[in-house]
Amino acid sequence: MRFFSDNTASASPEILDAILAVNRGLEPAYGDDRWSQQLERVFGEFFDTEVRVFAVATGTAANALALATLAPPYGAIFAHEEAHVVRDECGAPEFFSGGARIVTVPGPHGKLSVEGVVRALESNPPSVHTVQPAALTLTQASELGTVYRSAEIAALAEIAHAERLAVHMDGARFANAAVTLGCHPGAMTWRAGVDVLSFGATKNGALGAEAVVFFDLARVADFELRRKRAGHLLSKSRYAAAQLLAYIESGLWRRNAARTNELARRIGAAATGRLLHPVESNEVFIGMGEDAKRELRLAGFEFYDWGAKSSGEARFVVSWDQPEEDVAALCAALSPPGARISPR
Amino acid sequence: MRFFSDNTASASPEILDAILAVNRGLEPAYGDDRWSQQLERVFGEFFDTEVRVFAVATGTAANALALATLAPPYGAIFAHEEAHVVRDECGAPEFFSGGARIVTVPGPHGKLSVEGVVRALESNPPSVHTVQPAALTLTQASELGTVYRSAEIAALAEIAHAERLAVHMDGARFANAAVTLGCHPGAMTWRAGVDVLSFGATKNGALGAEAVVFFDLARVADFELRRKRAGHLLSKSRYAAAQLLAYIESGLWRRNAARTNELARRIGAAATGRLLHPVESNEVFIGMGEDAKRELRLAGFEFYDWGAKSSGEARFVVSWDQPEEDVAALCAALSPPGARISPR
Amino acid sequence: MRFFSDNTASASPEILDAILAVNRGLEPAYGDDRWSQQLERVFGEFFDTEVRVFAVATGTAANALALATLAPPYGAIFAHEEAHVVRDECGAPEFFSGGARIVTVPGPHGKLSVEGVVRALESNPPSVHTVQPAALTLTQASELGTVYRSAEIAALAEIAHAERLAVHMDGARFANAAVTLGCHPGAMTWRAGVDVLSFGATKNGALGAEAVVFFDLARVADFELRRKRAGHLLSKSRYAAAQLLAYIESGLWRRNAARTNELARRIGAAATGRLLHPVESNEVFIGMGEDAKRELRLAGFEFYDWGAKSSGEARFVVSWDQPEEDVAALCAALSPPGARISPR
Amino acid sequence: MRFFSDNTASASPEILDAILAVNRGLEPAYGDDRWSQQLERVFGEFFDTEVRVFAVATGTAANALALATLAPPYGAIFAHEEAHVVRDECGAPEFFSGGARIVTVPGPHGKLSVEGVVRALESNPPSVHTVQPAALTLTQASELGTVYRSAEIAALAEIAHAERLAVHMDGARFANAAVTLGCHPGAMTWRAGVDVLSFGATKNGALGAEAVVFFDLARVADFELRRKRAGHLLSKSRYAAAQLLAYIESGLWRRNAARTNELARRIGAAATGRLLHPVESNEVFIGMGEDAKRELRLAGFEFYDWGAKSSGEARFVVSWDQPEEDVAALCAALSPPGARISPR
C-alpha cells in the first residue's frame, strides 16, 4: 500500500482518452497544433481573465522557467525554506535564471507569513553589492499540505508588489488547494495578486503535463525562447495540450482533488492528536515515533520518513487512484487501539 | 498534404498500446518504476554492449544534456554548421553547459569530413586564452538527410579521440540511418567510436520519448543531476520507458524507418537531376525554383523553404504515418512533364 | 574622520615602491613575468608548504573563482549567514559556479559553529533531487571582526572533509587574524584543514592585489581557465605580483595588521559594555543607540549603520593609514562622560 | 628584443605619477572616490557627448561585460572570426552573458565587411528555434592591425541597427586607430553608430585600466550589478580612475600611439612585399617563411608565429616603451639583402 507520493499515480482514463482522441493524422508541431491553440481560451475561461499559457513536461521545468523569467541572474527569489524549489529541484531555479539566489524564509506549517517575508526583505536591502530582490514564490498547496487562504495570498502579494517583486505560485497541487478553499480559481491567483502560476496536472491525474500561466501578460517577455532553449518546447505538442484541455474541461481536476482531499482527511482524522500540520490537501504529516513507523511498514504500508533523522515523523500522500481499501487499512492501523472497533 | 517535418506525425499504435499497458496502479516514480528498470538491459541487447540509458522528453534536451556532460563551460564543441544543435536549439548546448562554444565546421551534404574537422582542430589549438576542445558531435542521419557510413564515423572518432575529444552522435533520426546502412546498431555507434548517443524515437513514431545512451560508462558522471536540475527527470517515468521499450522490442523503429525511407526514395526518384543531396533517409531536398514551389503549394503540398531566400530550394520530410497517396501525388507533381502521363 | 571600511585606505609606500621597482622594460605578460614566477616559492615559504598561487584583482573574484573550482553548478556551499560571499558579492559565487547554491548557516559572532554546520549538513542530505554538498567556506577574520582559533577551524574542516566537502577560507582580513592569533600562517590554514584560501592584501595596504592559494594541489583543476574566462588574468601581471611579494617579504602584512588591530582594540576598550562582538581584528561593532550615532556623525565621524534599521548599531573599521588622532578622538567621543578625563 | 605583444610593456611615467598623486588619505571606495567621479565628465569631453563610464581591470572584462549587457543568454553576437572575443578570451562573452553565441563572420584583413555581415544576418534569421541576433562587435584597431574608416563603421552600424542589434566596439587599441585616422574620437564611435565601447588603456601605457563607455545611455541597464557580480568593481577605485584620467587628460593616449604606429610603419616599410595586411596601427604581420623566422629568432628577436602551422607567418607588435634600437635592428634584419647596405 503506497503512500509515497502522488507522482506514483497512473494517468486518469479521461487523460488517456484525450490522448487517443488527438492521435490522428499529421498536425503542426511546437504548439501550432489545433489543441495547443485552444489552451489560452480554455485557461482564460477557467481563470476568468486573459492569460498566456505554455505547456511543459514537468513541474520543475514550470517553476524554474517561470522564476527565470521573473528574476535576473543577480536577482533574489524569496521562498519558504521547505519549498519544492528549495528542497527538491536540484538547483533548477539557479540554473535556469543563470544564478539567481533563493532566499529562504521560515514560516509555520510550510507557509510564508507576512512577518517572515517582511523580515527577509528588510534583511536583504538592495545595493550594488547584493543580489536584487526580484520575486516571491509561494506554494499552493504547500509542501506540508496546508493551504493559503486567498486573503493570505493577497497580503503577501501586496508586500511583494510594494517592493516591486513579482509573485509566483507553485501550483503543483493547485487543484487540491482550490477544492479545499472552494473558491474560484481566479480568487486564489490573479485576483489575489499572483502574476505567474505553475499549474500542475501530472500529480492529479495527467500522464505528464504542466502549464505556466501568466496573468501579468507583460511578464511573458522571453518565456518562449527560454522554454525552447531548455529543451521544454515539446515537438508533438498536441499530446500535452490534449491532457491539459481534458483535465480542465472534463472537471477532472476537481473530481480527483476532491477524492484525494477526502481520503487524506480520513487519514488525518485517524491520527488526531499526532498531526504535525493541518490536513488541507492530499498530504498528511504524522508524528508517530520510530516504533510505530516500523510497525506500519511491517504491515505493508509504504511512505516517506520526514523531518530530522529519527524524528519519528512520517508523510503520507494520497494519489488519485489510491484504492479506498488502502486508506481504510491505514486509518485502522493509525487509530488508537480502543477506537479500532468502530466500523468505517 | 503535409511534408513539413516528421514531428507532425502522430504516435504509432504500438506506442499507445504500450502506454495503456503500463497505466495501472501505483508505481514508483523518477525512474524507479519496473519499466525504466528494464531500459539498460533492452538497450544493451539492442546495441550489444553494456550501456547506461536516460530517458528524456525532447531531442534538444538529449543533445544539450549529453554535450553538457562532455564539455566544460570553457569547452569547445565541434559540430557541422548545419547541425540541429547549431541551428535549431536556441542555444541549448550553451545553456546546459554553462557557456561552452560550438565551433561550426563546414562539410558537403551536411556531413563532417575528416579534412574539415582536422582544419577546425588546427585552427583552435588549446591555450589558457582559448576555449578548450572537448567534444565532437555528428548527426546521424544528418540534417540534410544524408547518412555517415560506419567507416566515416570511425575515422572522425579516431581524430577526435586522438585529441581527447569525446564523440557524441545526435541520433534524432537514428533509425532511418540504421535502416539505410542495414548494419547492426552497434556498428555505427560504439564500435565506430561514439561515446554518447542521443537516441531519437519521437520523430519515428513515439509520442514523446528520447534516450541518452552512454557507451563510455565513465562519461556518465553527473548526468542524473544535470537531468534533474534541467527539469527533465520525468516523475511518471513509466510512460517514457514504455514507449522506448515498445519502440525497440516490437521492431517499430525499423518498420517505421523502412517505410519513410522508401517513400522518400520515391520522391527523390521523381526529382532526379534536381536533388541537392543524396536521399539516404526520410528527407528530400530539391532545387526546383520559386515558381515550381509556388505551383506545388497551390496544388496543396505543404513543405519548408530551404537555403537562402529565393534560392528555389525546398525540403520534404516523410512522416511514419504519411499517407501513401500523398507521396504518390507529390511524385507525380515533381516528375518532369513527359513523365506525367502515368495515372496517379 | 572615516571609519567606513579598510578599503578606503591608500596603498602603503612599500607597495608603491615595489610597483616602481618592476616598472622597467618589456616583460612577458599573463603571469610569465619574473615576479609572478616567484609567487609560489614565496607563498610556499610563508605557509611552509607547497602551494599553487594565482593573483587576481579583487577579493570577490578570489572567493568566487575559488568556490567555483570547488563546487559544481549543482553544488551546495555552506557559509555563515553574514559572510561576504552571502551579503556583499552580488551573487558572484552563484555566477562563477554556474548556479551553485549558498546554504546559509547561523552562528554566534559571525563564526560558524560545529553544531550549526552539522545541523545544516543534516538538513541537506544529498539525493538526485537536491543540490549536492560540495564546500564549506569560513571567513577569517569574520565579517563581525572575530577570529577563529586554529582548533575551531580544524574542527569545522574535519566535519566538512568527513562529508567530502572542500574547505575554503575567505581571508580578506587574513593578516589581522594571523596577528591576533600570533600563530604561523600555516597553522590556521592548511594544518587546520583549509584546502583553498582567498588571501587578501588590498584592505591591508596593497593597491589592488589578492591571491588564491591552493594547499590541496589536486583541487587546482581548471582554475587558470576559469580565471582567464572571468577576465581576471591580468595582462601586466608583474604589478600584482610585485605587490604580493612586497606585502609578504617586507613584513608589511604584519606591521599594518598589528597597527589596525591595536587601534581597534583601543576603540573597543572605549566602548566597553556596548560591544556587540569581541574585538579581535580591525573592526569594532557597537550598540550605542541612534541618538549617540547621530551625535558622533555631527562630530565628524563617518561610519556605517549596522544590523536592522534603527537598531542603534554601528560599525567602525580601522584602516592601515588611519591617523592615530582619529582613533583618539573616537575613543574620547565613545568613552562615558566620567571616563573622559583620563589621559590617553 | 621583444615584439611579442604590447602587453609586455611597462606603465608610462605619467600613469605612475597619477597613481602616486592620488595615494593619500582615506577615500571612499567602489567608485565613490573623487577621481572616479570625474570620469564621466572627462570622457564626455573627450568624446564630445554625454557618456556613462565604468572602469574595469582588463580588456576581457570590458568586452564580456559590455556584450553581456547587450545580448541575452539566448542572443547571438556577430563578430569577426579573428576577433579577440572569439580567439583570446576563453569564452568570456559566453560566460558573462549566460551562454550567448558568438557567430563568426569572415572578412578581409581582420575587418568585418558589409557583405559579410549581411550574409551572416541572413543565415541567422530569428525564430523560436534559434538564438536571437542581438549585437555586432567590431575591433578597432582590428586583430590584424587594420583600422576601420569611420564610414565603414557607420555602414556596419546602420545594418546592425536596422536589425535592432546593438553595436559594440572592442577598442583595446583604440588610440592607435584614432591616431591613424586622425579623426575626433567621437567620429569613429558614437557619431558612426557605436553604442558601447571597450576603451583600452593598458596596452598603450596604463598599468592596468580599461573603461566601458556607453554612448547609448539607455543600454547601461544593469551594468553596475554585472560588474560587481563578476568581481570587477575595484574597491580602491581611485587608482584605476587616476590612470584613465591621466591617460586622456595628459594626451598620453595620443603620444604613445603615435610613437608605436610610426615604429610599426617603419617595420612595415622594411618588409614591403611581404606584408600580410596593411600596417595601420602598431602591429605588423609578415609572411617570411619558416627559415627567415628561425634566423630572426637566432638573431635575438622575439615574436609570435601566426596563421596555420608552418605558414611562415609572423606577428610583430610594438610596445609604447619599445627601444628605438630594437625597431631599427628589426628593420635592418627584415630588409632585403641589397637594401641592407644603407647605414642604420
Q: Sheet with the most strands of chain A? A: 7 strands, mixed
* Gyration radius from CA atoms of chain A, angstroms: 20 Å
What share of residues of chain A is helical?
25-40%
**Strand percentage of chain A:** 15-25%
Beta strand count of chain A:
10
Counted by DSSP, the helix tally of chain A is 13
> What is the largest interface, and how many residues per chain?
C-D, 53 and 53 residues
Describe the structure.
Chain A is α/β, with parallel strands linked by helices. Chain A has 13 helices and ten strands. In chain A, the strands form two sheets. In chain A, strands 1-7-6-5-4-2-3 form a seven-stranded mixed beta sheet, with helices on both faces. A three-stranded antiparallel beta sheet of chain A has the order 8-10-9. The longest helix of chain A is centred in the C-terminal third of the chain and has 19 residues, at 252-270. The two termini of chain A are 18 Å apart. Chains in contact: A-B, A-C, A-D, B-C, B-D, C-D. Chains B and C meet through α9 of B and α9 of C.
